[in-house]
Amino acid sequence: MLPVVVVHGGAGHIPKERAENSTSGVCSAVRSAYLVLQEGGSSMDAVVEAVVQMENSPYFNAGCGSVLNVKGEVEMDAIVMDGKTLGSGAVSAVRNIANPVQLARLVMEKTSHACLTAEGASKFARSVGVPEVSQESLITEYSRMRWKKNLVPDANPVECQMGKMGTVGAVAVNKEGNVACATSTGGMLNKMEGRVGDTPCIGSGGYADNQSGAVSTTGHGETIMKVTLARLILFHMEQGQSAEAASDLGLAYMKSRVGGLGGVVTVDPQGNWAARFSSRQMSWAAAQNDTLHYGLYTGEHFRRSFSEQH
Amino acid sequence: MSAVLVVHGGAWAIPDELAEASVDGVKTAARKGFVVLRNGGSALDAVEAAVKSLEDNTVFNAGHGATLNIDGEVELDAIIMDGRTLNCGAVSSVKNIANPVSLARAVMEKTSHIMLTGKGANLFAESVGFSTVPTDTLVSEFERKEWERHKTYVTGVLEDFNTQWAHDTVGAVAVDSSGNVACATSTGGIRNKMVGRVGDSPVIGCGAYADNFSGAVSCTGHGESILKVTLAKLILSHVEQGESVADASQLALQYMGERVQGAGGAITVSPSGKWAATFTTQRMAWAAAENDVLWSGLDPNERKKENLN
Prior knowledge:
The structure holds two protein chains of two kinds. Chain A has helices spanning 16-38, 43-56, 100-110, 118-127, 135-138, 141-149, 157-161, 221-226, 229-238, 243-258, and strands spanning 4-12, 76-82, 88-94, 115-117, 168-173, 179-185, 195-196, 206-209, 213-219, 262-267, 273-277, 281-288, 291-297, 302-305. In chain A, 35% of the residues lie in helices and 26% in strands. A nine-stranded mixed beta sheet of chain A has the order 4-3-2-6-5-1-12-13-14. A four-stranded antiparallel beta sheet of chain A has the order 8-9-10-11. In chain A, helix 9 packs across helix 10. The two termini of chain A are 23 Å apart. Chain A has one domain: (Glycosyl)asparaginase (Glutamine Phosphoribosylpyrophosphate, subunit 1, domain 1), CATH 3.60.20.30. Chain A is α+β, with helices and mostly antiparallel strands. Chain A has ten helices and 14 strands. By secondary structure, chain B is of the alpha+beta class. The longest helix of chain B has 23 residues, at 16-38. Chain B has helices at residues 16-38, 43-56, 100-110, 118-127, 135-138, 141-149, 153-162, 223-228, 231-240, 245-260, and strands at 4-12, 76-82, 88-94, 115-117, 170-175, 181-187, 208-211, 215-221, 264-269, 275-279, 283-290, 293-297, 304-307. In chain B, the strands form two sheets. A nine-stranded mixed beta sheet of chain B has the order 4-3-2-6-5-1-11-12-13. Chain B has a four-stranded antiparallel beta sheet with strand order 7-8-9-10. Chain B is globular and about 45 Å long. Chain B has a single domain (4-307), classed as Glutamine Phosphoribosylpyrophosphate, subunit 1, domain 1. Chains A and B meet through strand 3, strand 4, helix 4, strand 7 and helix 8 of A and strand 3, strand 4, helix 4, helix 7 and helix 8 of B. Strand 7 of chain A pairs antiparallel with strand 4 (115-117) of chain B.
């Protein structure tokens, strides 16, 4: 059963012209993460590897390809969490770095804090030698186009957001049963400057605990926060629900109590996993027992052996 | 349905020199917040009023009197949450604002977001007419001296939680006569923290949480530990499982101590008006108002009673 890694590339509505890139992106990310685990790497290494790949890809709302805030700039959030120690690192509203998930990990490993924001996060990045990159290197034509479209007064970025582009994330459990999670995002399309969503908030954007499992979330940030979705799902698992049932319960509660849609990837320490979403789509992929699993639309579950040509 | 308000002024080894002022401060805040409830006001209005009172009081680490970061500046965090709708507002690392809890409320009520940070939070404050105050007015002589004394954070925080010199977060929880619960927490963070360090206070589910189905919580103590166990949400999950507010708080704080070696405190109120003030630190200044009684405490198991009027 072990190891397992599950990744998501965002929940919502992914337009057809981007669907293929989204799917190949999550498959590629999960394959790399799985390799890390097969070679005995930690689940933290695996989830960070998967997320870094998706941050580097222009097809996801994280790192390069991030959505723009109302001013047309990129501000990013990320979190990592280690299920063994409950150690966690997060950055919010950070600018001009290529891999926020790596910076989040550095916060966890090199400081006695759990979260650094904005200027402070940049200052820390400089102090540990993380290179600064230009805004331009993070902004794609697609994200700029979406930003312009949503500047129109009656545009509804939340509606358009319920899809189009999504946060990325991963959960993993390694051979020793250690779980970890990582989530990264450019946030919400045309968000206010300094807006922080669920992603860097522990318990909302992600949570990992060797005693129950790990979750990474995506979807409408504010509603994920209101129900602390990641932690909620793990509470259900602590009470005996399976990864799949717990994920569905959490998402259903979020929908009925506060009217929001989203998606999650969940894993337990035994290697049971789920990729569930209440939105129209979520690009996801999982790796277990040398098998690649993936899907995009509700009900889809494709399988392919890793030894097959991709 | 009788209304209840509980406030805390921080869980830490409050030194004797600050004890009286701390207890007076929480009692004053409790009285101010309870007046709102008595006049039919909402739990949300009551917790904001109580926390504002604590922010304005330099003896506490929030608003005026907040601790300084490593660069000698004041960065403030705050959160407020409405148990009826689960609506929430939070600010992190905001500067030169006298009442961050009110700014957090404005985020909740005037934007479609929950949390704003740094410069963005300050820009929003300006846009909705919050006046800025110079850093000097927020910094007390005491804090300036402490900042100079504690040059490194690591010795600072471990020392602070095992010895005397750490101020702490403030907060309030309430249930009003309609059975709605609310919570609010506000802080200047940890002395000599790194620039931009965000602790538990403004993080929903950690520094605070409110839900009409279970109750409201405001936490204080070692921020990074509170974050690791999502303390506020953990307490309420125990309440949902049938534990009393006191047992739920105790269980969760105990877990935090065992699992991540963190100490702290929490005030909790249930929708039916049960409340608890619990802490695993040496002391916590707290006060609770219900009916005509004002309760308060500082040392473990201490519970003083006086007439509200």
